């Protein structure tokens, strides 16, 4: 095989190399000139932007300043929620030489819990700016401050700082009415304005604090600070002060709130007191209660477990806004409806044997007197049916007053809905009708259920707030004022006008209001000397009270069955505490010129007249009566009092 030898052309290779070299050099020259042009542009044309504005963004920072929260006062100017100076412990991680060792020391010095340590580590990870302080604990006690101060040399990076924190001077007394401030959850962070809530940790969780969050919070302020490359603050360049939240004044009366709480004593239950002149909530008590100050800065797991796991007392549940069977407190409103619709007249009367049966039914509905003497109330008119609380009369009434008629009339008093203006957490209760049962249960309505509803049992459920509202409407002869917590914004502000969105209740015969008020007055004041013909609350409120009553009081008791009891139990055998009936009472006074309306609910209180009635009087006395046992001057009638009310239609 012959090998072919190819000779290289060195001249051609030289020309190729030189051409590539010139091309590369040309590109390099172009790039150099491009860089020079860019440099000139940045250094000359854009000098102001990059030298001042852009560079400042790396050394000048804007820090938020949280606004002071608005304070809350009662109607008399007493402080209910304030911002109290508080000391808290912070740490700058970069300055802490041995964070774990320091936290171990704090566990001994101030009993820093593992839970608090875990939360601190989460906050440290979320820091956006180096050398920024992170909160370790709020509300340091004097002992905590002293222990930290003595050991400060062993805690590098840790410091004690001061700030204003929410404080509730009256603690448990106002907890359910005011609500409380708590740490924001992730869900709440998504709902608030992220700019205005920079630097703010707490938010209203319930009650007034939650509803008026936007009014109370205020507007965030800012500081412009200069930091060095390590993130340390070198100087404050400018400051925009925050705008504090607005103070608000409530209709609540601290003294009356305390009186209601003391009257309820150790019972579990709820009380609502309204001002008939404007619908203002003068007192709203729920017991057992809790200390809202525990939630400031975040409640510990142990403390929250004590509150949340207490299934018997359920202190976090607001009983003043919960729903319960109303018992006989519903009767005056049904009686008024029967008159207004023409289903009954004032003179119509029945002979009460103490029990009732529907045609074709074997079920017996007993009057409450049946369990005492196996008899009834003899001849009973509507007036007597109210003041002796005759169940049989209302059983008979139910057969003629259809459930839908009952529903439509009672709804005019606010039952079945939350009629309050600024208490959204209140239950709507249940006002049954054929439509309601069909939609809720997919079942038809039965006549026996109407009979039960006529005495406030069965599906009917109302709240103490609704009962107080209905009592206020009865006192006002149908004039609507929706319940409201807020009276005005600012101590010197004008009272807020709260026009009602509900129409006033107009009757075909406006004198029927006087008739029913008269009957409710006889519940408390009528005394015939007979066991079952005297007003059901006379003995408990008038006869057994050491002090004579200084005003005429209109009221109605209610006893709502909780569990099905045997005849032996109803005749006096011991009943378990949890099986005792709930006790209720509604009242307003003075009956001729009402200044206060109240609803009392006592959980397992057994008797409306015997237990809830005296509580209602104690509350009314606290508001209306002076130290001399007489009506306070502002409540005394300007004209001579009207003659005592006398029944004209009693059989």
N-to-C CA distance: 147 Å
Query: What would you give as the CATH superfamily of the largest domain?
Result: DD-peptidase/beta-lactamase superfamily
What characterizes the major β-sheet? 6 strands, mixed
Q: Give the overall shape, derived from the CA principal axes.
A: elongated
Percent helix, as a range, is 25-40%
CATH topology of the largest domain: Beta-lactamase
Number of helices: 23
Regions with pLDDT < 50 over 5+ consecutive residues?
567-573, 646-651
Rg from C-alpha positions?
A: 37 Å
What is the mean predicted local confidence, pLDDT?
87
Would you report the number of β strands?
20
**Global structural class:** alpha+beta
Overall tally of structural domains = 2
- Residues in β-strands, percent: 15-25%
Summarize the structure.
This protein is an alpha+beta fold. The protein contains 23 helices and 20 strands. It is 35% helix and 17% strand.
Walk me through what this model shows.
35% of the residues lie in helices and 17% in strands. With 651 residues, it is of the alpha+beta class. Strands 2, 3, 4, 5, 10 and 17 form a 6-stranded mixed β-sheet that branches. Strands 12-11-20-19-18 form a 5-stranded antiparallel β-sheet. The chain has a 3-stranded antiparallel β-sheet with strand order 1-8-9. Helix 15 (391-400) crosses helix 18 (447-453). The chain is elongated. The N and C termini lie far apart (147 Å).
Topology overview:
Blueprint (H helix, E strand, L loop, with lengths): L9 H36 L1 H13 E6 L6 E2 L5 E13 L7 H11 L4 H12 L8 E4 L4 H9 L7 E10 L7 H4 L2 E3 L2 H6 L10 E3 L2 H5 L1 H5 L3 E7 L5 E8 L7 E3 L3 H11 L4 E6 L6 E7 L13 H8 L22 H10 L8 E4 L2 E2 L8 E2 L3 H4 L4 E4 H6 L3 H10 L2 H9 L22 H8 L5 H7 L10 H12 L10 E4 L21 H15 L12 H6 L10 E7 L6 H4 L11 E8 L6 E7 L5 H17 L27
Parallel strand pairs: 2-10
Antiparallel strand pairs: 1-8, 2-3, 3-4, 3-5, 6-7, 8-9, 10-17, 11-12, 11-20, 13-16, 14-15, 18-19, 19-20
